[in-house]
Amino acid sequence: MKGFFNWKFAKKIMAVSAFFLAVMPCSQAQTVVHFPSFDGPPATQLDAYLFDVATPGTHPAMVFLHGCGGMFNRHTGKIDSRSTDWAQRFNALGIAVLMVDSLGPRQHGQMCAPSTFDGDIYRARSQDAYAALAYLQSLPQIRADRIGVIGWSQGGGALLNTIRASSPARPVPMQHADFRAAVAFYPASCRRAMQGSPWASPVPLLVLIGEKDVWTPLPPCVELMSTPAQGTQVTLHTYPDAYHDFDWPNMRVHEVPAFTTKKGVVPIEGTDPQAREDALQRVPEFLTRWLNDR
Model confidence over 88-138: pLDDT tens digits? Predict the structure, then answer.
């Protein structure tokens, strides 16, 4: 199902983004922070990267959950370009960003291949997400009730595991508010066998996925999200010609045989310009709706 899209409002968001991106410096100020996961005892001491907003006052924030390859480009050692691109766009809209590294502190590399996947770490990422929420809620410049979460691929699966109604990671009781909104790009674990049925969550959710994605395929996700539980707000938007990682800046479409799945599927990933452009408008529109002062 494809959700309603307000083009007039989206163009306003895009215009604001374009203005801020034009005046922002190319390099973003980031602060390395540390806080314990909720995965203990013993708790993992997490590394995270805070991209704050320069304007005074309090503002909303987003938690970033990286994909199976981790946060960093393996050639440069820097945070990958997809994450920094989205962070810059969110900062331009007055939204702080906290990127959580779930692999480095656990001394683990990529988890994209069946041989390198670690189920314990994958399950612990929901605990990381709620620890990140609590950390942000402790900062005086952050609106404690206006924090969202966004995840890509395996991070999108961790996001679904985090926000579903039956999530064992959700603190009970919560010290402050739950996540205000969630965005999952081509999420792993988007199927009934992993999430139960119907999909139920107190957190409004936007799911974006390519119809040609063979790594996190669309049909099981449609089956899960098409009939959500009463009171659950979910929008699933699909892109006919897009593969995995369609929102990554300037990635050629290519196969990744090194990460062939247990079923023998060779992943295909790469930028789809049309889908990326739509997502760059759709995601800010969705988040502005939920992170504003309504």
Answer: 999 999 999 999 999 999 999 999 999 999 999 999 999 999 999 999 999
Dihedrals phi, psi of 229, to nearest 5 degrees: -65, 155
Q: What is the pTM of this model?
A: 0.90
Please confirm whether the linkage preceding 249 is cis (ω < 30° from 0).
no
Judge contact between 63 and 150, C-beta under 8 A: yes
Report CA-CA distances (Å) from 57 to 16, 25, 94, 141, 291.
Answer: 19, 21, 10, 6, 15
Domains of the chain listed by start with CATH number: 7-22+29-291 (3.40.50.1820)
Residues 62-75: tens digit of each pLDDT: 999 999 999 999 99
**Among residues 70, 74, 89, 112, which one has the least CA distance to residue 28?**
89
Residue 38: CA count within 13 A, CB half-sphere: 19
What's the token pair of residue 12?
Answer: 């306003």
